[in-house]
Design brief:
Number of strands: 16
Number of helices: 26
Strand order of the largest sheet: 5-4-1-6-7
Strand content: 5-15%
Helix content: 40-55%
Shape: globular
Largest sheet: 5 strands, parallel
Amino acid sequence: MLRRSLDDFYQHADEIELISTDVFDTLLLRRGKSQRSRIAVGEARFAHLLRERGLSIGKNELVRARLLAQKFAYRALNAGGGAGEVRLTDIIRNQLALLGLPEDLAGERLAIELAVEKTALTANAALATLLRRYRQAGTRIVAVSDTGLSTDHLAELINHFHGPGLIDRIYSSADAQASKRYGGLFSVVLEAEAVSPSRVLHIGDDVMADVRVPGAMGIKTVHLPRSRFDRYASRADGAATEAVRQIHQRLVHHGRDIPTPNDKVSFGREVFGPIVAEFCLFIWLYAKQAKAGGDTTLLFCARGGIGIREAFERVLQALGLPLDLKRDNILVSRLVAARSAVMTRSPAVLDELGREFQNGSFADVARALGGESYELPEPWQQTFDPKRFFTLLDSGVGQAVLDAIRKQNDLFIRHLDQISGQAQRIVLCDTGLYGSTQRLLAAGLPDRRFETIQFARCNYKGLSEDHFPMVAGLVVEQNLYNPFKVETVILRYWQIIESLFEPALPSVRQFSEDADGVVVANSGDIRYGKLDPAAGNPLLSGALQYIDRISSGAQVLRDADCAWLRLKQAITNPSRIDIVALGVGTRSVDFGRSDVVHVLNRPQNAALSKKLMSVKSHLWREGAIARDFPLLKPPLLAALEMAHVLRGVSARLYR
């Protein structure tokens, strides 16, 4: 049992040479103030300082930029295996860069951060008294903290509350680039202090970082958890702060509208422009931290990643955002990734093939994966059954198919090597949703570390989510539409996001090599600058027009709030102009097949009941209703919205 007092301390006291104490919520106690409320107070002070300097950035914009910088930095840190730590100085510099503020303001913002902490913390006098007693008796005392603050900043806070002379040395994860939660920071302490784990006693509040991890290393531990009241008070304070921020944000944008689009280009400029630019800012925030974590390359996946790359590079240029990170476009598709997973006989590929070819035959799967036509006997003409596929593939007849798959996979690996070099960390960038490419590549190439950032993440397939920790939906991470989260409206009509970013190119199916030994594919040369992803794509053309005229990230965030509301209206209650602007015609089925599906099927001259029943066959049901039932549009769309709401409520109740 973990005890809520210092009782365990005394039974180990005579066996130790070094006492290690956590800092926050252990040596220094919170006063029920959440991180969000502390950030809000700090940004209010910073906004006042900026006004004195003649800079008009409001508190709400500062808070939002800070939260975004922090969110994506920690997301990238965790996806990278937790190696390293997010530095508060980096978060603040990214916040300033995003808002177009001078970098030399970072020191003053850090000073405000420490001033706010001094009002939100209090000394743990009982623990300090105990530590002083043992220090006077000759036991060495160190402070060990997982924090974005530097050692000097921690020393300033500890000395402010306890005075000098309590702690012999401070270890900060931000400085050491190693954390308690993964054991790295404790290893740093043991080496620097030249002490055996069995002679160390660590005190802290976190079960994982302060008890289980050091305990597994042989370090003795004392658990001092926060009281239940303190935890609830902090959560309530954070929820209240966020509610006030959201209300203020809605009031600021209430009544603010965007120009009414009248064609695809203007819709792309006024609506998708801010949304795409905001997405690119999220990519930049994530990539900055990923680069700090080691040798990293950022690869934009064909096809949707090509359009994303074009927008991303333009945002960096327009806002002067620095990113010293190797990046390239990668020839990849779900089919290409599936070949890698087939070579390792991964169960993950059977899930994907079973879903894609549920009405097809083994021969259909062979043609898709092998990329050739084969004369296959009767067993291969049977309906595809994932459980039997590897057995058939490993049979004598399947050898030709397997050889073709191996050849194509070897060419893909060469292509990957050519564009990524020896990078230890490969960050893929794509549109979304489920992350099949990520899942299959990770299964097929286990000696490499893949992670994926994409516009949205959603388990619409109902398959395993084991790979989700390595797949970040930077804009949306939700399995169902939520009317209270406006960005989730794209789940009602996901095809519009794919169409927005994808150039008019075929999906990657077949690899070969040119005369210089460079691996090429059927989709042609997709290297950055070699093609115009917006050619024939008026929505993306308009979005790029918006990006080319932006002046600050603050402008993008403000415009995106309004653009999301307008997009939600266009998807859930489309006008005639919206139907024209968002109509994408047909979508390719892909996965080695030439089949296409219509987003909106052709209007039918049929009875009303039959036409109503056919609404389910459309990929964009709201668009079909608005087009085919102009008089019944209001009640039908209201009923559809309510159905989505009830579906979401039901999913939350029974999950």
